[in-house]
Amino acid sequence: MKFLKSLKPPGRTPDVIVNPFSIMRSIDFTGWMLLLSGWLAWTMDGYDYFSVSLTAKRLSVQFGKSSTDITTAITLTLLFRSVGAVIFGVAADRYGRKWTLVINLLLIAIFELGSSFCNTYQQFLAVRSLFGIAMGGIWGLAASTSLENIPPNARGLVSGFLQQGYAVGYLIAAVVNLTLVPNNPHTWRALYWVGTGLSVFAAIFRSLLPESRSFLEAKLEAKSRGDTGISPTRAFLKEAKAMLKTNWKRAIWAVCLMTGFNFLSHASQDLLPLFLQDNKLFSPHNTSLIAIISNCGAVVGGITAGYFSQYTGRRLAIIIMLVWTGAFIPLWILPSSFAGISAGVFFLQFGVQGAWGVVPIYLSESSPPAFRASFAGIAYQLGNMASAGSAQIEARGGENWRTTVQGKNVPDYAKVQGVLLGVIIGWTLIMTLLGPENHGSRFEQAVATREGAGKMRNEDLVENHRVLQDDNAETGEAYDVKVKGNVEHVEKGAV
C-alpha cells in the first residue's frame, strides 16, 4: 500500500479527466506555435538520424564498404550527441532557447548538406561525427521550447505528441527514400538535400517566434531581485557547480533511466528488418509495411500515455506501458503471418513509445528548474550513448543463438530480441520506481544566473503550482511576460 501511495502525484490532482480537445483549446496561439517549432525540430532529428540507415546499401556501394562499416557512421553519431547536449543545453540555459535552437538547426542543415557531398568513406565518418554534435542539442531544446509555454494541464498530452515527432521524422524519410531517391539521378544524395531544406525551414520558423515565456519571466525576476553583483557568466558557472553538487545522485539516476529507455527503443527496432526477412521470410515490401504499422502504433501509444499521465502521474503511466510491452513480446516474435506480426509490432510499439511519450515531461519535471534544457538533454544523450552498442549486442547474440528456417541455419533474432527486451523492461521498471514524482512542478520559477538557482529543486515548486492548476484546469492561467519597447514586465493572463 505504501508503494502504491508513492506513485500518487504530489498535491491535488483533478478527479475528472478533461476532454483532450478542451485541453487543446486552453493553449493560446503563441503556445501552439512554440509547440509546433519544438515538434518540428525533433521531427527533423528523427529524419536526419534515419537517413543513414535508410541509405546504408547505397552508401556501401558508393564508398566500397560493407553495410557493417556504414553503420559505424550511426554509432559515431550516437556517441558524439552527448557533446552537443552539453554545448547547446548549457547555451540554452544561459542565453535562452530561441537563438540556441535556431543556430542548432542551421548547423544540422550544414552538416546534412555536407554529408550529401562526401565522396570518400573517411569524409562521411567525419561529417557524421560533427553531425552528431549538432543533433545532440535538439531534444533538450525541443522539449523545453514545447513544454515551457503551455498550461500545466496540457503537458502530458503535449509530451506524448512531441516525443512521437521522432517516429514521424522516420516516416517522412522513408517516404522520400521510397519515392524520390530511386527516381533521382543523384540517388541517396537527394534524401539528404530534402533534409537540409526541411532543417532550414525549421530554423526560419523558430526565428520568427518569441523567446520562451518562462525563460523571460525567470530572467526578469532575477533582474528585479538583483540577486548577484557578479557577471552573468560567472554567476551561471557558480550555480552550475552548485547544481551538480546538489543533484549528483539525481543525475546518475537520470542517465540510468535514459539508458534503459534508449535500449528499449533500440532492442525493439534495430534488428526488426533482419528479423522479419531472415526469420519470417517477409519481402522487403512487406517489411516496409510492417515498419510503417509499428510507427503508427508508436504515435498512438505516445500520445495516449502522455495524455493519461496527467491524471495517473508520470511514473505510474510509464510502469503501465512497460508492463503492457512485456505482455506483448510473444505476439511480437511468435506469429509467422503478416497479420499476426503486424498486430504484434503495433501493440508492442504502442507500449514502448507509450512509455517514451511520458519521458519529455517526466524528465523536464525531474530536472533542476534553472537547468532544465541542459540537465534533461545531457541525461537523454548520455543514455543514448550508453545504448549505442545495442545493435552489436543483438547481432552477436544472433551469432550464438541459431535457428533453422526452411532448412537454412540463420540467427535466432526472435529469441535475442525477446530476451534483451525483457531484461531492459526490468531495468527500466526499477529505475522508474526509484525516481521522483514531480507532477505539476512549476516551469517559470528560476533562471540559471540567479543566486541560489543551483540548489533549487523541482519538489519545492510542486505544491503551489498544483493549486494554480486545479483552480484553472481549463484556462491554464499563469503569468505571461510582455515586452513593450525595451521594457519587460509581467502580466497575469492565459498562457
What do you see in this structure?
The structure is a single chain. This protein is mostly helical and 495 residues long. It has one domain: Up-down Bundle (Growth Hormone, Chain: A), CATH 1.20.1250. The chain has 22 helices and four strands. It has helices spanning 2-6, 20-25, 29-54, 56-63, 67-95, 98-116, 121-136, 138-147, 155-163, 165-179, 188-207, 213-225, 232-269, 272-279, 284-312, 314-327, 329-333, 338-366, 372-386, 390-400, 413-434, 462-471, and strands at residues 402-405, 408-411, 477-484, 487-494. A two-stranded antiparallel sheet has the order 1-2. It has a two-stranded antiparallel ribbon with strand order 3-4. Helix 5 packs across helix 8, helix 9 packs across helix 18 (338-366) and helix 13 packs antiparallel against helix 21 (413-434). The radius of gyration is 22 Å and the shape is globular. Mean pLDDT is 80; it is low at 461-495.
Question: What is the assigned CATH homologous superfamily?
Answer: MFS general substrate transporter like domains
Task: Count every helix, treating DSSP H or I runs of 4 or more residues as helices.
Answer: 22
CATH topology type:
Growth Hormone, Chain: A
Computed structural class: mainly alpha
Regions with pLDDT < 50 over 5+ consecutive residues? 461-495
Helical fraction equals over 70%
How many separate domains?
Answer: 1
CATH class: Mainly Alpha
**CATH architecture type:** Up-down Bundle
In order across it, which strands form the biggest sheet? 1-2
Using only C-alpha atoms, the radius of gyration works out to 22 Å
What is the string of SSEs from the N terminus onward? HHHHHHHHHHHHHHHHHHHHEEHHEE
Strand content: under 5%
Silhouette: globular
- How far apart are the first and last residues' alpha carbons, in Å? 38 Å
- Main pleated sheet: 2 strands, antiparallel
Transmembrane segments: 29-50, 70-92, 99-117, 123-144, 156-178, 190-209, 251-268, 288-309, 316-334
Main location: membrane
InterPro entries: MFS, MFS_dom, MFS_trans_sf
Pfam family, one: MFS_1
